[in-house]
Structure formats: structure tokens, C-alpha cells
Write a structure and sequence with these properties.
2 domains, homodimer, 5-stranded antiparallel beta sheet, Beta-galactosidase, Chain A, domain 5, globular, 763 residues, 19 helices, alpha+beta, 10-stranded antiparallel beta sheet
Chain lengths: 763, 763
Amino acid sequence: MDKILQATADAAWILGEEGHDPLRESSHESRFAISNGFLGVRGARAATGGCRWAIPARTYVAGLFDTSTADGAIPELVPGADWLRVRILLDGKPLVDDPGDLSSHRMTLDMRRGVLLTECLQMNTPAVGVRLRTLRLVSLSERSLGLQLIQLDVEHGEVAVSLEASFEGMNLGLVAERVGQDLGVWRTPHSRKGLAMAAAPSLQVDGDEVPATALGELRWSWTWRSRPGQVACFARSVAVTRSDAPDLDPAADARDKLGAAQRLGWRGVVADHEAAWASRWRCSDVEVEGDPVAQQALRFAAYHLNSAANPADERVSIGARALTGDDYRGHVFWDTEIFLLPFYALTWPEAARALLVYRFHTLDAARAKAARMGWRGALYAWESADTGDEATPEQVIGPDRRVVDVLSGRLEQHISADVAYAVWQYWQATGDETFLLDFGAEILLETARFWASRARVEADGRHHIRGVIGPDEYHEDIDDNAFTNLMARWNIARGLEVVTLMGERWAGRWTQLSSRLGLEDVELKQWRAVADTISTGIDSSTGLIEQFAGYFALEEIDLADYAGRSVPMDVVLGRARTRQSQVIKQADVVALLALLPDEFIGDTAAENFHYYEPRCGHGSSLSRAMHGLVAARLGEPALALRYFHETAAIDLAETHAAIAGGVHIAALGGLWQMAVLGFAGLSIGADGVAIDPKLPASWRSLAFSVQWHGRQLRLRIAQAEQSLEATLEAGEPMTLVVCGTSYALDRDGALHISLREPQNAAA
Amino acid sequence: MDKILQATADAAWILGEEGHDPLRESSHESRFAISNGFLGVRGARAATGGCRWAIPARTYVAGLFDTSTADGAIPELVPGADWLRVRILLDGKPLVDDPGDLSSHRMTLDMRRGVLLTECLQMNTPAVGVRLRTLRLVSLSERSLGLQLIQLDVEHGEVAVSLEASFEGMNLGLVAERVGQDLGVWRTPHSRKGLAMAAAPSLQVDGDEVPATALGELRWSWTWRSRPGQVACFARSVAVTRSDAPDLDPAADARDKLGAAQRLGWRGVVADHEAAWASRWRCSDVEVEGDPVAQQALRFAAYHLNSAANPADERVSIGARALTGDDYRGHVFWDTEIFLLPFYALTWPEAARALLVYRFHTLDAARAKAARMGWRGALYAWESADTGDEATPEQVIGPDRRVVDVLSGRLEQHISADVAYAVWQYWQATGDETFLLDFGAEILLETARFWASRARVEADGRHHIRGVIGPDEYHEDIDDNAFTNLMARWNIARGLEVVTLMGERWAGRWTQLSSRLGLEDVELKQWRAVADTISTGIDSSTGLIEQFAGYFALEEIDLADYAGRSVPMDVVLGRARTRQSQVIKQADVVALLALLPDEFIGDTAAENFHYYEPRCGHGSSLSRAMHGLVAARLGEPALALRYFHETAAIDLAETHAAIAGGVHIAALGGLWQMAVLGFAGLSIGADGVAIDPKLPASWRSLAFSVQWHGRQLRLRIAQAEQSLEATLEAGEPMTLVVCGTSYALDRDGALHISLREPQNAAA
């Protein structure tokens, strides 16, 4: 077991914590979470003496939502039992009474291997000294599986040792259906989803199996006598399964999965898991030379992004804190489509596909929401859980502990365009025709239809969308939000494009689909009219976009005067005054620059960025990444790098304790986008991949992998040499456009392109 | 049981909640807490179906502190098990699966009786309809006792009923020593304090006892069949005891207490408890006519103040959230002596005495802290727990989730003068000579000695105190804080006064005490020198006090510009800029005006108040009460009333969710002070009680009781009549000074005094 318990030597793969800091513990639990997109386990400490009076360590199970019957209740992701609980007694005294009792304690997240390791020494009882090392993982190759390994090395002392393994928190939010010695089955009380957890623990002392005393209800104990030099190895495998229907019993599946794991043995489980991680890193690792903080942040981002998704489950998506914390109760926002999807589409298309098929499965709920509000087509839930029904709470407790009304569930409608945008990005990146025909086209059409019915023509002859909230949530119930209107126009245009495409290439499928959706030419004509005449807020003389009707007339507030603040601007100014001011919560027009760069010609992108950037208070963790991406593309790498580091600090700065409720997975997706889409200047079209790098001065090199239409590319940009190395690692020959010049790329070896000179085709 | 489950009819004694609001639930748990100064139980809902995945309902036990051995660990009040858990199954289905399943739910805090009542109907299963009513109390007459009553009225339906009663959260922070069927004994893991809980549950159906099935480990169940009209009554008595020494077993005491309660019967337990509350209300009720919101706030304040104290335990004091929530971990601040003590000294001297004797027992720790920092005498802990050792954390998480350093444990030294101040107030109010000789004098002398050693004479010939924090914690490590220096001077003066007093009246005791403390004339002479020459910050030309050296030169910030903010100013401006500004966190010079009114002659109090009031950001819940008290005394009742209502809103406004961590007991003490010491203008001297009322226009009358030197007075001020009615309800004749004129008060009936005319002695 020794070798398996050793962390990767290269520090760039490691996140470590020495000792114990109660104030930061709950943030560290988020940061050190392990997950495989189905199971998520917060990084609680390995051994407790039963003296932890905070909440038990959370194990989240994707999709295990329940909704109480109370007025205004919303779905909540219900945690399963904590399957890692261990209590070790040396001479009757708990080994880890509390963290302060340990002579040393080290927790190590080995991001390369996807495992959490801990190590501690207990030397303070004269009678006995032991070294305790643990490993935990949730398998990336078989997502039902969790594994816990504990090795106890006796340094000195001959005493009675007992180890008790249990499951804790079995009654928190779930109703027990049956709990036996090795298997528990629970149900969510209202949605009646099933959860089964089967466990097989074992203990060897110096290589000999020690029989367990079964204590009932997922509790076991072992007792033996220590002697100097003794090595005790504990292993616990668990299999966790979920069933979504009240009449389906998840137990048999859990037993089968556990049986397979036992036949494989825990060494095999670890090996398969590590192989799966190695494969993920081959596809998604980003390497930076010259900026170790950025390197660690990008590894951390890719670690959590790879942990968050599950290509095998099309019924779940990724919540705003992934499976690492309670905040937002597992709900899915536009974060997934806008901030996460580019990573998946370009490094893990299977995961991206599952996330989008989840949106296909929730299309009926989106259609119902639109119909209920008097519109056609599909209006997605602003917050989405298992069914796709609107899950936004009507009130929340604000950062100042006041209860505030939330209107986003009704008014923040750009979500429909965001989903369509992600569908299109995936289609561009993969050319996945089956997806387009089975799922994507219907999403594009139903969202386009929503916008066409949502916009109303007015006396000025233009179409308007009144009464919405844009990404900037400080301004509610506004008219003609430019982000919403331009994304709606873009969405309608893609709907029309898919109509043409299907008519040309898959006429039979088009006949079926258009007939099922009742889409006729007269409606498509109305779509075109909306797209042609929708109000855009663009001042044709200056190119400046007004964020929404009336924005330019609001109070200007110099945010520099509030530089010292450490809370969002709406809390500083009060909500009422903020609403009457130009202060923006997060990238809104700037988000438009990021998402639809082709809509901005000449200097208009720069002009709009420089107008809106100083007006933004960055009251959302999503905001800075959008600014960094746009700044990088506009050739302002120093400014972009500042946004990059500020975004990295959200989850990694030790000055904060703000991530107790989970990592900000969208901000982590934003880090990857700033590096790959920003500094490397990567863009994807239907015809191929283009790149236009502008690295920050401190970044000596930047290397990353992307996939495009079944191909796998590795790209490396070297700053001093001003060169690009492009390698086609898998797939058919393709074209790569570098700073505007096309190069043919094939499997015959790396292509080296100088970025210094005016470009000539080099291959 | 029917009658006992009915709430007091008069709405002014009631705090109610209908239905269920998850966002406010945890604030309501604080507001609806019941306590008797030894036990405190948060107002969690009565019945759960095992589906509550928040923390279990907390039962706090005063003094049950534990300190982990981690670096920088501080004592924390460890909650005991939740002894109220009940699960009722009707036809196998949990009665209260979750609050939303109930047709109706009402929670009622009956402040008059000191009980929490709930009532709900479950009609949504067609098979059966029941009405569930519950009561819980922790006895004010026997503080070890808790009682839970549940009555189940079957409206219709014949089904199988089962009721399971258990204790939950038994492993959260405590180590089980032994847990049996009817008794559990636990220890805090480090301090090795013992906790015993013994329980006796019983169930009657239509008057017949139903035998329990014992399920082991404080779990029982009962099963029977319902029939329409059936009444089932469940009663559970618990006795809780604490032992402070590792070798003391608290179990026998718990068994004895429980046995006595069983002999008395639960009706007797309720009756004794209600009699104890009736007696408390006779001594402490404040009645306001014309302002029902103020009336409710004053009842609520007195309810929690009467709940928080325990005259029988001199080893504990009252934490910043009393026994109603986790915030501040049960730690005791100056809040107790400055904000709470006046209420106790004047309405419940036995409680006040116990709180001060707690400070006597922690005097050695205070002497050790002073010595460690290089000074003489006693420097109390800024945050104090069981031993009196400094318990202030070195870092905390700020309102903006940043980790900030806390210097108060070293620098906020005015606490020593605050304790001395409270000792003197108690002495003035009671004339309790035994207390003064056994405890009070030593505190006064050792704190005076601290100040005399703390202040250093400098080149200007004056004594200075450098490097402190005053009540305004925005300005750290400052010199010559006026509050600190003037309170220090006052503390030394009282020390010298006690020297004189003891020398004159108890020469023998003085010889003993002075010899034990090593107090000689030469030292007393130095005290006098310090008191005479300490820097006060008073500008003799204007009478304006500079809050600390250099304050006047700091940046002026107009707080009106920040009127919309909903967070403290240091969060708005950032800590660095706030430190360089005149923005004050809380009453500092204004607190001095409140505590030492006699030090301010002529208009200087008003001048200082009007200078400092607009500079205060009220970043502490303690601040507004001090301002209201001073404003009332200065004859500005409208302004004072605004502060009164803002203070009441801290714990009672439904717009906030800020009291999840417990009620702000100091702000509640401040409400009482604003009413009695402010609007009624009550003051206490060694010679008697004086009153000088200035009621707000809306208050038609104000009536309250106070005790002075063994006497009990009831005073009622009528606004329209401009009259005062004074009744001496107990004790020897005394003098009452009304608006400067003395009246003799005896037991011959109420004295009626007109406040309208120039006063003449009327009796």
C-alpha cells in the first residue's frame, strides 16, 4: 500500500495543507473535494474521534434532488451518508480526538491521480506512536465506486488497537428504506428517488486478514494488539447507485458494482482510476512556464472541471458549485453552458454532449414555462435541477443577511439563448451529426421560436423585448437588454441556419421534425422579421451599445472611490440606489463581446470594453473571466492577466474563506477560457481551428490540447521564440489558421510556425 | 393537558409564527429559544420525520466549555444532545415529513409563562386526521429540568400509530462515557467536564398508561391504534447536570433531580416553573402604553434577560448570544457588565451578584494576563469562558468572508474598568456588604492597580495609556483613548474610595485584604498621581473630547453619503481607509457620556454627543442603545425613540436573517436601559433612587419595577397627566428624588407626584 499512499513528486500537481486551521477548514473542504461527476466528497479530515460538531462530511450524489411540499420550496441536492467515518482507539483513547492532538497533519490533493491523501503522526501518548496515512478516491473509470485506504504504521508501543468503520449522517434528508450490515437503501422523502450504498471493508495486519466484528447498520470493528514495526492496512470499497423512479430498487446494481470491484481488488480499482485520470490529463492539461501561480490555478481548474462532469449520465448537469458544496443546492445555471462548455466541447466532447442532452431532456419543462408565461417555444429554467422546472428561489438571504426578492426565475431569460449558444459551439467543435439531428436542432429551433414570440413589434417598427434581467442583475425588469436582444437575434439566426442545413442535408429528418414542432414557413418568415428589426441598442455613430434602454441616463458613479470595499456594490450603495446607477454587477455588454466577437467590427469592441469595464463592480464570480477573455483578445495581456489572477484567487487565495459552500466551477472554466481562448487566441469555426496568440509577458510558454471534429491537437506557444508548435495527435489531416494564415496539419510530426514574421504557409 | 397547551390570551405576551419559512427558520430558532441560564434550547420545530439535514436542534449547557489542543484554539461552548426528538408514524407514514406537509403549523412563544408551544393539523392523508400540540420548557425553578409535552388528538381515522422518542446529536463534540436506556454520560474531550442527561418518558392514551418498548440508548417507542376522539398524551422529563472535574460523575445528581421531578409530576413541574416566571415578571415587567411595537420589544428583552441568568451558578456568566446560538461560542464580553448588568442589578440582584462573582473567580486569570503583559493588578480577558483565560480568537472570518486579525484580546483593555464599573453599580444598587467585602473590593482594587501600572508618566508630566483599542474597534493600537483613560481614572477613584470606606467601616477586613494584596500607602499615592494627571483628551476651551490622540486630524467622511449601505462602514471603505478616517464603529465617547454622566457639566455632554453621533456607523449591535440612552437623557426623546426602534429591529425585524447565531442579548439589555435609565431617567446613587422622565410623545405611559437596597418599587409615568405614581412594594421607607425634589416613600400606599409644576415635596 506504501507506494499508492505517496503523492506525485512534482509540486505543480499538488495542493497541500499542513496543520489545522479551523477558520479555513470549511473552505479547504471545498478545495480538496474529490468527484467523478456522479459522486462528490468534500475534503473533510480523514479520522475524527467522534468529536466534530459541525455537519458531517458531505457525499453528494448527482441528480439526487428532492423538493419539499412547502410553499415556494425548491429542489435541493440531498447528500448521502458519509461513508468514510473511521474511529481508531489506541489503548482505549481515540487516535484523532481532534486535529490539535496530532503532532503533524498533512492533507494532499494529488490532482494528477485524482486522489486525496492524508498523513499524520501521533506521538503524544508515551505508550504508543503511530503513523497514519489515508487515501480516498471516487473512481473516474467506474463512477459508482468509492475507495478508502488507511495504513497504520506502528512506530513503537504494544497496546490494544481497535478500528471502527461506520457510515454517518444516514438520516439527514433521506428516509431509510432498509439499512443492513453491508447495504443501505434510502429514499428522498418527496421525489422518491432511491439511493443504495453497499460497502465491503477489510483489514490486514502484517498481511494477515483480521476478521471484522459486524456491529450492524454499516458498522464494523476490528481489534488487535500493536507491536513496533507492525503495518495494518484497512480498505473500504463502496458502491453507490441512484434510481430515479419510486418503484426501482437501486440495491441490486450497487451489489453488482461492489462485487465487480471486489473481484478487481482495490489495487485494480486504483489502477483503473489512475488510468482514467491520465487519459483526461492527456486531453486537457494546460502547461504554463514562467508563472507558477497561473500554472497551479490552471491545473486546479482542469482538476475540478474533469471531476465535475459525467458523460454517462444525460439526466444531470453541473451545478454552480459542482459536487463540492451546498451553495445553490446543486442547481444548474447559464454557468454550465457559457463558462464550462467550451472546456468540455474542446477537451471532452462526450461530457459536453451529456450536458447538452440534459437540456434536451428538460426541453418539455422549458416549453411549459414559456407557455405558462404566454409565449411559444422553450424558455429554460434560470435555475434547473432534475426535471428542468424552474428552481429559482423566490427569496434568498443576501450577503448582508437581509432577505431579498429574486426575480431571475421569471425575468432572466437569456438562459434560452445561452443554451442554444452552447449547442452551436458543440456542433461547431465536433460536427456531431447524430447529436444535432436527435437533440441539438430541436433545442435551437424551440429557443429561436421562444425569442420570435417574446419580441414584440412596436410603433417604431422595431421588435423589442421588455421586462427582462440581463447578466447584470443589479438592473431588474429592464427593456431591450443588449445582451438578451443580440443573443436572441443570434439564436434566431442559428435556428434559421439549422432549418436550411437540415432541409439541404437531411430533408427527411427535417420533414419529421418540422411537422412534429408545427414549424411552417409563415412562422420562419416572422423569425426573420424579428431578427432583422430587433432593437440592438447600438449607437450607429459611436458604435457604443447601450446596455439597456435608459442605461446611459443613469447616475454615473466612480468605482475608484470604492476601491477599498470588500463587498459587492449593491450592498455598499443599497439596492435602490444601485438600480438607479450605471454600476454593473458583472460583464453584460462585455459578455456579448466575449461570446459574439464577430458582431463587432473595427474598434467597436475596444470602445465598448473601455466604456463598460470601469463601470463594472464584479459582483459575481463570473465577471472577471469575461473581462480577462476580452482584454486578452483585444491585445491587452497585462490587464487580462490581472483578471486571470483575480479569478484564480476566488478559490485559491488563503485570505478568503468564501468557498465554504463549494468551488466556483464557472470561474474555473473561465480560467481555462482566458488561457486558451484568450491568451492563445483559439477560435473554432465549422471549417477548422484558428489561433492568434498574445501571451502575457511573464508567460514563457503556453501549451494545451484541444479536440476538433474527432481530431486531437497539441499546441505550444513559446514567447521568446515567438513560435507555435502544433501536433496532430489523432485524426485526419486538417487546416490550422495561425494569425490569419492557413497551414495544413497532418500526422507526420509537429509543425513549427514562427509568429514573428509576416506569415507564409510553411508546410 | 389541554389547558397547559393553551397560550396566554393577551397578544402582548406572545410571539408567534404561522406556517414555515425556510429562509428565516434559523433566525426564528434563536428568537424562540427557551432558557433558564443553565440550559438553553433553540426553537427548532417540534416534530421532524428524520428528514432534517441541517444541524440538530441545539441544547446548550452553561459552562460546558472545551478547548481543543490545536494552535490558537479557543474555548467553545459544546452543545449537549437534542433531547426533544420525536417521530410519529400514522399508518407507517411519518406525521411530519417536513413542514410543508402540514395543513397548518403555528409556533408560539408564551413569554409570560416561559414556554414554547406548537400546534399543527395533519389532514392531508385521507385515512387519518390528527391535531398535534406540544409544549417545551426548561424549568426556571429547578434549572436542571427540561420538560416536553405532546398531545395528539385524533380527529378521524383508525390506523396504527407509533411514537418514537429519542436523543439526537449525541456524538457532536462530546465523547460518550456511557449511554444506557434512560441515562447518558458524556465528557468534553479536553477539559474533561462531565454532562449527564437522564430521561423519563411516558405515554397515556385516553388516560391509560401505554408501556414503552425500550430501544436502548435513550430511545423508546410506543404503538397503539387510533380512533376518532382519542387523546394521546406524551410527557418526557429530562434532568441535565454538569460536573467540572474529570473525577466527578454527574450521573447521580441527574438521577436525583429526575426522581424529584417524577415525584412532583409534570403538572407540578409546570406549576413551579410558571410560579418562578410570575415572580420574575413581577420584578421586571416594563409596560408601555401607546407603542405596541415598543411594548413587545421590551417584553421580548425582559423574556430573554430573565432566561439568560442563573443566580445559582457563580462559575458562569452570560455569553454574547446568551444560550440561544453558536455565535461567539458562549464567550463573555463587556456586554455583560455594561449592557446587561443594570437590568439585573435593579430587577434581580441575585443574578447580578452571580455574574460578578464569576468575575471574582476569574480574577487569578486576569492577574496572570496582566503579569504576562508586564503590568500589575488584573487585566480581564476581552473574551472570557470558563477559566477566565483570554479566549479571543486571533483571527476571525469577517462579514465579507475575509480572514482578519483580531487584536482585541491583547489591546481592548477597557474591559477591566467595565468590570469594576459593574461591581460599583451593583454595590450602589444593593448595598450588599458581604459581596463588597468578599468579592467586590478585591476586583475594584486589582483593576485600579492595573490601570495605575498601565499608565506611564511622560515628558509632559501627564500619564498616558498607549497602544489600546477603545469601544470603537475600527481604530486599533491607539494612544490615550478617552473612554479607556476616563474609565481608568474612574476605576482608580473607586479603588481609592473603597480603601477609605473599608478603612473606616471594616478596618479588620481592610488590614487582611491590603496585606494579602500587598497594597501599601506608597502605591496608593501613585494611584492618586495617575488619576490626577492622566490625559483625558478634553479640550478645555470647547469641552470637546478627542476620542484618541490624533483623531481630530483623521479624514472626515460624511456618512450620509452611505445611507443606502447595508453592511458596516469598514467593509464599505476597506479596513485600511476606515482606520485613517473619523468613522466610528460604535459609541465610544458617547458610551462615556452614558456611563459617566456626572463627569460632563453644562452643555458638554450635548456638544460631544452632537459631534460624535454623525460620525458613528453603528457597526456593532451595541452602538445604538448607547446613543438612544444619551439622547433620551439629553431631552431628545424623538431621536432616542428612533434608536430604540432600530435596536428592537436587530432581533425582531423580519427583513433580517441576521440572528441565526443567537439573539443579541446586549442590545436587549440596551432596550431596557433606554426605557428605564433613558426615558424614565432613573439613576441610582448610594443615597437613593432618582427619576427625571422625558417620555417620547407616542408613549402614553411607562411603568416598571426596580429594586434598591432590599426595597422593591413600582413606578408609573403618565404622559398626558404628567404624573408619576410610585409604590414601595417591599422594604423600608426611602427617599425618591423626582426631577430634583426629594420625596419620602413608604409602604402606606402609592405616591402621586405631578411632573407638570415646579416640584414641591408632596408627602
